[in-house]
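Let us practice reading a record.
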Amino acid sequence: MQYWLFKTEPNDYSFDDLLRDKKTVWDGVGNNTALMHMRNVKKGDSVFVYHTGKDKHIAGIASVVRGPYPDPKLDDEKRIVVDIKAVKGVPDPVTLAAVKADPDFADFHLVTISRLSAMPVKPAWWKKLCKMGGVSAT
């Protein structure tokens, strides 16, 4: 299993929306590097759902229920989507400021490539971020 972080603007689609909907098609990713990462996502992988904009924090955890496939709304083979389902919210949202303040995350794309909307999360980072957020890493 691999770990990921997907960003969303909560005014467009928040983790609460995912909890309400139970699952969703994760679409709208256009950056080539983010799409490259999404092509490596597999069913069963875990995902942090990160709120951008003024919030800037990890809001919840989701699980991938369908790996990458072409976006059915677009006529562009390069644009892919994945399906995710809500797992649980993060009781203590992990802020970008907290991540940036911790030297363990110095190489994390969330810090180094802040505009990237989909990125891998190393297993050690996943465990630490879960602990910071007050959730079990499993």
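A brief commentary: The CA atoms of residues 109 and 119 lie 7 Å apart.
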